[in-house]
Amino acid sequence: MRWLQAVSPSSIFVRTTGILLVAFLTFAVLILGTVAHFTILPLARSAGDDLAALMLLSARSWAEIPPPARREFNDRLLRNHGLRITDLRETLPPADKLPAPYLAFVQESLSRRVGFDVPLRPQQRDGERWYWADLSIGGQNLRIGLAHDRIVTRRLEGVLTVAVITVLLVLITSIFMAGGTTRRIRRLSAAVADVSQGQLPEPLPEKGPREVRMLARNFNTMAHEVRELLANRTTLLAGVSHDLRTPLTRMRLSLEMLREIHDPKLIDGICDDLEAMDRIIRQTLALSRDLETREEQTVDLVALLEQIIADACRSEGDISWSSAPASCSRHLNPVALQRVLANLVENAVRYGEGQPVEVALECAPTVVIRVLDRGPGIPGDQLEAVFRPFHRLEASRSAQTGGSGLGLAITRQLAKANGWDVSLHPREGGGTEARVVLPNTRR
User: Fold this and answer.
1) pLDDT of res. 5
2) DSSP string, 142-154
3) In terms of DSSP bridges, do strands 357-363 and 319-323 run parallel, antiparallel, or are they unpaired?
């Protein structure tokens, strides 16, 4: 089945073979024509001139030697040079069009050397084909001929050989060029089909031409991101289910207790649980909604950070600029960036243990935004783990002490969706540095 697909008219292999076949045949015809015009024909003309000179010399020698020695001379001439000299006893057919350019060159040279037109006329003799020229030398009329076998060429065999070699070269080249590419494309097609069916294929080997390597690398990156997305969504759903189960259980117990006793504290607890559930649902929906937002515009990052700092300060946060340029404009998604920075600032205030939080902005071709706190810091082995949904440093998974566990997950997902980089680093002297790197998007 794969073989039939490979040789179908629409396959890369067949198209590549056709293109190469036309190219190789055209190249062969052009090369043969060039070699024939500049090399073969001049050599044939020179060889024809030499043969005409030999024929004239042989005829003059034959006319000068005694008649008894002419037979032996003729035998030696036939044996060594493929020539024969006779008298004009037989009548030959009229001159016809010569079948080879070489004979035309011989005829032209003979005519030029004797000073008048000397046609070569064909004759079938003793099962062989001969070409004869009538000459008048030393008062004698002679007829000198050359055998067809002396000048025979195998043109048809040569053309067929060139054609066969061309076809073989084309097939070998096509198999070498298109075979590997088509195999990689079929493997990529199968991997894409696996992804469309919800399966996660193995990474494709990044081999072959540069374009194929880039395609395989991009697909592997996409498959890795899809794998991470599915893992995050699975963790997200599991975390939502887990975190909703706890307040629902408390609410059920409270409602059962309210059947027997009316206690305002139970009602307040139910309200708190409903608020926690609403917060979890809102954050989960916000993550999905913000990941789909793609509207971009030119934003003054200094003004955006000042607004985020002002909003955080109204919530009893102590936040100040560490360094900031006069202005810094970039073309990006302002909603996503505001959510990313607001989450980082909120975390810095929450875990900063009441210490001032600093914000720094570097507006080089690559923008770097830093949010620095003086909290207890994050262990080195947890700097990446905290970006997973519902991952908290507190083992109790308490929403009061550790939040919902979605803030940094939302931050990382939004950053990756917009081509930004978010990372956490230990701060010298204690605390944590949250770093956001924006590529150069100036317009």
Assistant:
1) 47
2) EEEEEEHHHH---
3) parallel
Instruction: Decide if 414 contacts 387 (C-beta within 8 A).
Output: no
CB distance 394 to 368 below 8 Å: no
369 three-class SS: strand
Please give the Cα distance from 224 to 201 (Å, whole number). 10
Domains, the chain, ordered by start: 2-156 (3.30.450.300), 210-292 (1.10.287), 295-443 (3.30.565.10)
- Given a contact cutoff of 8 angstroms between Cβ atoms, the answer to whether 426 and 380 are in contact is yes
Minimal CA–CA distance to 22: which of 172, 166, 180, 191?
A: 166
Cα dihedral angle (72, 73, 78, 84), rounded to 10 degrees?
-110
Number of Cβ within 10 Å of residue 59's Cβ equals 22
* Averaged pLDDT, 348-370: 87
Q: What is the pLDDT of residue 198?
A: 65
**Angle 12-20-174 (CA atoms, 0-180°, nearest 5)?**
55
Report the sign of the C-alpha dihedral through residues 324, 327, 329, 332, in that order: positive
d(C-alpha 167, C-alpha 177), whole Å: 15
74 vs 143: CA distance, rounded Å: 12
